[in-house]
Design brief:
Length: 98
């Protein structure tokens, strides 16, 4: 399951795309620092089946940060296309970056 950018048009059910614009801009900081900030925010999202956060589960892929535009993009590679909690993950991702 891919979860990348919410502003894109609907895609097939097995691939949700989402990009997030932060309500406050990312501060000028080294890329690793900004990446750590994003991963820290995503690590608060827990997969209930594994009891681990989505970062430690290895679900976060292709992280891209555009500090100038204040946007973050990534894919969430879930264990199955029919993941029953994909909508909840999408909601939590949106909440983490708004």
């Amino acid at each position: 399951m891919d979860l990348v950018a919410m502003k894109h048009p609907a895609r097939p059910p097995f691939q949700l795309a989402t990009a997030h614009r932060r309500s406050r801009p990312l501060q000028a900081a080294p890329v690793q620092s900004r990446e750590g900030e994003v991963l820290a925010a995503l690590s608060r999202i827990i997969d209930p089946d594994f009891g681990m956060n989505i970062v430690d589960c290895g679900f976060v892929k292709d992280l891209a940060i555009d500090a100038g535009a204040g946007s973050v993009a990534f894919r969430l590679e879930l264990t199955t296309p029919a993941c029953p909690i994909k909508d909840e993950f999408e909601r939590q991702v949106g909440a983490a970056f708004c």
